[in-house]
Amino acid sequence: MQINILAIESSCDDTSISLVQNGVILSNITANQEIHIKYGGVVPESASRAHMENLLPVVKASLHKSTMRLSDLQCIAVTKGPGLLGSLIVGVSFAKGLAMGLNLPLITVNHLEAHVASLLIDRENVQYPFLCMTVSGGHTQLVIVDENLNMKIIGQTIDDAAGEAFDKIGKLLGLPYPAGPHIDKLSELGEATFSFPISKMSEYNYSFSGLKTSVLYFLKKELEKNPEFISQNLNNLCRSVQDTIIESLLRKAKMAMIDHGIKTIGIAGGVSANRGLRSKLTNMADENQWNVLIPKFEYCTDNAAMIGFLAHKKYQKNQFANIDFTPLARYPIGAQ
């Protein structure tokens, strides 16, 4: 039996539509919102308006690429949360209207759980349980996943996410938003010549607010002595910051792997596209003889393919949603 699912992702500023057939991704089209670059961050109202403009054209483009028609669908899937409430409402309202118009069932998906599940796309014979380090602009978590895709958070940031630290520090360095990819690229040209602190949180939790403050005061001090300090040391500053964030992430992940006797580790979320993180995680896994799960670049940032993939798993379990469900800005892993 063919199970064709149209999946919708609109939790932040990316409008994404995917067509998924029996768990196989046929199309995954995403419209980015460049309007936020000039503001140095996502403007919620602008994001909501852009979703309204982008949804229908992206649906048409994704249907065209998949060679599928609306009449071929068995289900509509949509992100329920977490995310920007206005953006979620646009996607959910569109999904409800489409499901009612086509007389199809709805499946709701937790955005964070979908990021974790993205590690399984196009993969077989994954060894369970595995540890997923979910790292994005809004979240930094360590999640243990079993063979039934039950997920348990064992550690997370108590303040800022790693992706937010990249972007905020990048802003201090004069880099455009989002700064993470720019820091990653420039760090390849530099050396870690500056030392910044790594937070010593208990157990498997993270904190990145102290790093931001440390960089802020360090730059202020150096710029007072030399106004050209940043431009003259940009590559080395980027490398030093990136190495500090990566070391902080991997130190806790390694501790969790050893403590729980887990042999497979993966990364997910927007920061999982960071080449420095991917490389050092792979090296750490090789040194400890662990299996490593690294997603394709297209599944790192917010995308509907991961929504549709997890929705297929839920379809097989008959986990459908009532039409009157409400999107949630806060929606932790494991919540119903």
Can you walk through the features of this model?
The protein is α/β, with parallel strands linked by helices. The chain folds into two domains: 131 residues, 2-Layer Sandwich (Nucleotidyltransferase, domain 5), CATH 3.30.420.40; 170 residues, Nucleotidyltransferase, domain 5, CATH 3.30.420. Helices cover 42% and strands 18% of the residues. The strands form two sheets. Strands 3-2-1-4-5 form a five-stranded mixed beta sheet, with helices on both faces. It has a five-stranded mixed beta sheet with strand order 8-7-6-9-10, with helices on both faces. Helix 3 packs across helix 9, helix 4 runs antiparallel to helix 7 and helix 5 packs across helix 7. The longest helix has 32 residues. The mean pLDDT is 95.
Q: Percent of residues in beta strands? A: 15-25%
CATH superfamily grouping of the largest domain: ATPase, nucleotide binding domain
Question: Count of helical segments?
Answer: 9
Radius of gyration: 20 Å
Helical content (DSSP H or I, runs of 4+): 40-55%
User: How many extended strands?
Assistant: 10
Q: Count up the domains.
A: 2
SSE sequence, one letter per element: EEEHEHEHEEEHHHHEHEH
The third-level CATH topology of the largest domain is Nucleotidyltransferase, domain 5
Categorize the overall geometry.
globular
Strand order of the largest sheet: 3-2-1-4-5
pLDDT < 50 runs, ≥5 residues: none
Report the average pLDDT across residues.
Answer: 95
The CATH architecture of the largest domain can be named as 2-Layer Sandwich
**Strand count, sense and closure of the main sheet?**
5 strands, mixed
- The CATH class label of the largest domain is Alpha Beta
- Gap between N and C termini: 28 Å
Class by alpha and beta content = alpha/beta
